[in-house]
């Protein structure tokens, strides 16, 4: 077994191996998966000198801790959290040299939900369909991490990109979600569309990597029944029978039979990955090009 690896000492509430996902397989029923906060994932990789496609860890709320088998450069980004190396404070949002045998602990998120750990050389678990991402819906890419798991790492880059300061957006106090109406916006009344554009919604605690669920006023339907299953894109605002929109995230099903009232462009989804339960949501309709 390679000595360039790390041992999971504390897996946390939900920690998974993620990269930028496996695009191009929706016709096979395979979701994109990958890091929900892709900008934070890319930043962590840049800080340790990896290509942005390298795999790392995505934590959820409570963070995780790993013991390095060999001295390795590590960076933690995404949701701000306390970082320690063998109990001593270390910087968040900057590359940290972790000695062999030392434990790097990314603690509970102070704000936001998901932190990202990048290791020099990246996590090199076996790829599936070109990606190492853990897909919670299909099970591709393996299971969430558990205590005692050993993760192989690749060869470290020669020169990590040391940085004095790293700009990164804070987790949202209010989640703004622009959306393009359709393809099934005609399934909703004018009142339903006003409700979506002006109603007071919040992030539900039932949200996960598959979809961000909402609490708030239900959207009024213009017709009854459901659709035959049709393709569902990333960012779809699907409306189940309770009338409360669900924003499809990276592990979403690729087909569905509930109407989609609109689609949120992918560039706005990173903020959704960091919105804690109870965060206010405003949906902003986009029209034209």
UniProtKB/TrEMBL annotation:
The keyword GTP-binding does not apply. Residues 27-289 form the Carboxyltransferase domain. It holds the Pfam family CT_A_B. InterPro entries: CT_A_B (IPR003778), Cyclophilin-like_dom_sf (IPR029000), PxpC (IPR052708). Keywords: ATP-binding, Hydrolase, Nucleotide-binding. PANTHER family: 5-OXOPROLINASE SUBUNIT C. This is Biotin-dependent carboxyltransferase family protein. The lineage of its organism: Bacteria, Bacillati, Actinomycetota, Actinomycetes, Kitasatosporales.
